[in-house]
Amino acid sequence: MKDIIQLLPDNIANQIAAGEVIQRPSSVVKELLENAIDAGSSEITVIIKDAGKSLIQVIDNGIGMSGTDARLSFERHATSKLRHADDLFSLRTKGFRGEALASIAAIATVEMKTRREDDELGQYLVVEGSEVKKQELASAPIGTSVAVKNIFYNVPARRNFLKSNSVETRHILEEFHRVAIAHGDTAFTLYQNEQELYKLRPANLSQRIVQLLGKNHQQQLVSCQEETSLMNVEGYIGKPENAKRTRGEQYLFVNNRFIKSNYLNHAVLSAYEGLLQEKQYPFYALFIEIDPKHVDVNVHPTKTEIKFDDERSIYGIVRAAVKQALGTHNITPSLDFDSDVNFEAIIQVPTRSSITTRQEREYGQMKGYHLPDRNVEHWEKLYQASVDESRIALGKDVPVKIMGSEVNRREPAERVKRATMQVLKRYIITPVKSGLMCVDYKAATERILYEKYLNNLENRSGASQQLLFPQTLNMNPADFSLIMEIQSDISALGFAIEQIGKFDLVIRGVPLDAASRDAKSLFDGLLEQIKHFSANPNVDHKQQLARSMARKVATIPEANLEQQEMETVVDRLFGCENPNYTPSGEKTYIVLESLNMENLFKT
Hints:
- The chain is about 35% helix and about 20% strand.
- The chain is an alpha+beta fold.
- It folds into four domains: about 10-200, Histidine kinase-like ATPase, C-terminal domain (Heat Shock Protein 90), CATH 3.30.565.10; about 210-330, 2-Layer Sandwich (Ribosomal Protein S5, domain 2); about 335-375, no CATH class; about 385-603, formyl-coa transferase, domain 3.
- The protein has an eight-stranded mixed β-sheet with strand order 5-4-3-6-2-1-7-8. Strands 9-10-13-11-12 form a five-stranded mixed β-sheet. A four-stranded antiparallel β-sheet has the order 16-17-18-22.
- A hairpin with a 3-residue loop joins strand 16 (about 420-425) and strand 17.
- Helix 1 packs across helix 4 (about 100-105).
């Protein structure tokens, strides 16, 4: 029999390696920026065209390379950072694997110009599909310029998996932010399609954060610092009231290298316990300085995932540092022995049940705080009200079997036109032939608005309510770029926006359904929802916008609804294409069927 195991050709091996290191255009930006930083650059320029699909160019004023070094830089595992295996545990540079340029050149056309200070002429190389097409002497400034063109040109299946330009641009800007935040002493400039998005001068950390993320971050930064024998933590965290419902502004650095760590992210969030609503994420940019011997950075090709030899201690120090920063700046609620302010605020929020839970009671007892039992002072009146409501005749129409089944869509039109009531300001109770239907007002409104907004986007028919006092938005370049990509669709929803500065917008009108809402808050919330949903590849662009707007506008009513308002909500819900669920899959209503109600009273 013939031998069946053989070595892969270099070009195929490089493409496989590229699949681990280069996942999308932003991966190229990350690797080239890190190389530029390691070259000792004080000025770095990034040029992006077509969201990096056509061109990614990084120009630095670093030390440059000789002809031999320039050629070897495109070989796999060629690196200037390692000489011995032990060097892996004393790394303080960005790159060290020697795979970046080799992986990039395997799936793109790469042009490099580089010159050292002592050389009269520089080097010009062209590498395509791992093959060096040209290397010659050329005039070049001190430093290195690397231009990556037509990414994934020879791997069309990979190119087909790239997302829209707005999504890919956002990923590029995320990588740019991570490097720029970590290197405030370096000047950065970024151009996208010949438009200058960023021109960052050298700055301290707080100034760099404001340069990148916008002036609105200036007032929310809280200094965080902790020094121990094991490690030091310093940086900034955001105030709880500025937390957002989407991730994306959380930055952790270990020895000036950006990392992803669910473990340490949890440490930060746990320090905010009791200060954030559910699924809210605060801003933070924290730098951990630790002896490299305690860290293993060589666990993932992209070098963003690392391991610590004592994770528990590091978790505790990070959590303590953040908690101390919140307390030092008087952000943590003050407590006294007579009452728990934080807990009082929690129990004032309307809940689905007025019955005190066991956990709440135990918490109250622990704090020396008595929680009353269910209020029964006026139970006779409650009973009388129940008798009045019970006149809605449930029993004889349809034999039923299960609780929570979905009613036929025709049934609401045949509803007995009798009492409709509102419970806990959120739920609408109304009789149907099969029993009692409970409609979640917020979920129902979200479904109704979603289908309306989707229709507006399809037909470009959204109506706008002009504002008496237009509101101005100061946006960071990343958010501004995203809005410009979808400006026509935002207008179709009913927003009237106008650019008045480089990255400034003015809101002149809002959708009619949201005329009573604060325009700036509404638009900011819509933007956060867009960024959240854009990460889901299974939802198309228009559905993302419609879902985002519907979720932002749909709210629990502040006051009791009139009878006609409740009837209208139910009728409009069952006029929808899919009345049973919200766009995100939550139930809009349930039915408590008559047989089940009878069984509830049987012992």
